[in-house]
Amino acid sequence: MAILKCKPVFQERLWGGRKLETSFGYDIPEGNIGECWGISAHPNGMSVIESGEFGGQTLAELWKERRELFGTYTLDEFPLLIKVLDAADDLSVQVHPNDEEAMRLEGERYGKTECWYVVEAEDGAELILGHSAETKQQLTDKIEHGEWDELLRRQPVKAGDFVFVPSGTIHAIGKGIVILETQQSSDTTYRVYDFDRTDNAGNTRALHLNQAIEVTTVPDRPALVTPTSKDVSGGTVQTLVETEEFNVYRMDVRDGFQVRQLDRFRLISVLDGAGTLDGIPLQKGDHVVVTVSEEPLQVVGAMEWIVSDRVTV
């Protein structure tokens, strides 16, 4: 068993802000920093292990060379990616492919099904989630004519909400929202609409309308999930979603909580509090990979976690 603490990787985004610094205490670069890639084996933002036996190695290297740490997976690439997003402005309206489409269109192993736990939300904050088109032709027509108010479905959100976003779902995170995102390990995004924004040089960002229309699920099928909670010794475990792509849980843990042994890896992100896990110090903003364990791990302190794993395949 090992607890692998990952160094965060920060990404500047047109819509980013500074809450990763003010809310999470990260030492972020100057500029509009929209994303913290907390646990990633994706080449666009690779996690490096901070210390210990595997200090200095990347997550991708360990997945390739020390697969027994993670479980009996046959997957060539590490399957999950964990982010914290600070949307100081609206993200583009976008959609992601599924696994088959990602391979066919981009030569990529994974599509992108994702989910969001809302950490912060300003008054009036909302998401775009889904659309009203009944056919591909209707979707195409509404996009070509810019009928966004009629096409796009909006949903208010508040801190503590959870949203599941399967591949093929048109979506956008609205301004004033901070989320913890659990997703497949993909960076493929097809932009549908970007509010006609320009960068500092007056350039608009590229749209990907043909690909977006091809991969969008029509008619839209809202993915409704109903989280369930149970009290356990030393805390509470809330099951947010369990799918083929990932299982995601929210946990309130305190002295006496045990992370049970498991035959596969788990990812833990600390949303609040501080303490130790099997003697390893953890605080708000930390992201760790817990490898295969044969004994339960002990918690000291009080923390709020988002925990994820994937069934071995």
Structural class computed from helices and strand pairing: mainly beta
Spatial gap, N to C terminus: 21 Å
The helix content, as a percent range, equals 10-25%
Morphology call: globular
Low-confidence stretches: none
Radius of gyration: 19 Å
Mean pLDDT: 96
Largest sheet, in brief, is: 9 strands, antiparallel
SSE succession: EEHEHEEHEEHHEEEEEHEEEEEEEE
Number of strands: 20
| Beta-strand residue fraction | 35-45%
Please work out how many helical segments DSSP would assign: 6
Task: Summarize the structure in words.
The structure is a single chain. The protein is mainly beta. Helices cover 12% and strands 40% of the residues. It has helices at residues 19-22, 59-65, 99-106, 136-144, 148-151, 209-215, and strands spanning 3-5, 9-17, 33-39, 80-87, 93-95, 114-121, 126-131, 152-156, 162-165, 171-173, 177-184, 190-193, 228-232, 235-242, 247-254, 258-259, 266-277, 280-283, 287-290, 297-309. The strands form four sheets. Strands 1, 13, 14, 15, 16, 17, 18, 19 and 20 form a nine-stranded antiparallel sheet that branches. It has a six-stranded antiparallel sheet with strand order 2-3-4-11-6-9, with no helix packed on it. Strand 13 (228-232) and strand 14 form a beta hairpin.
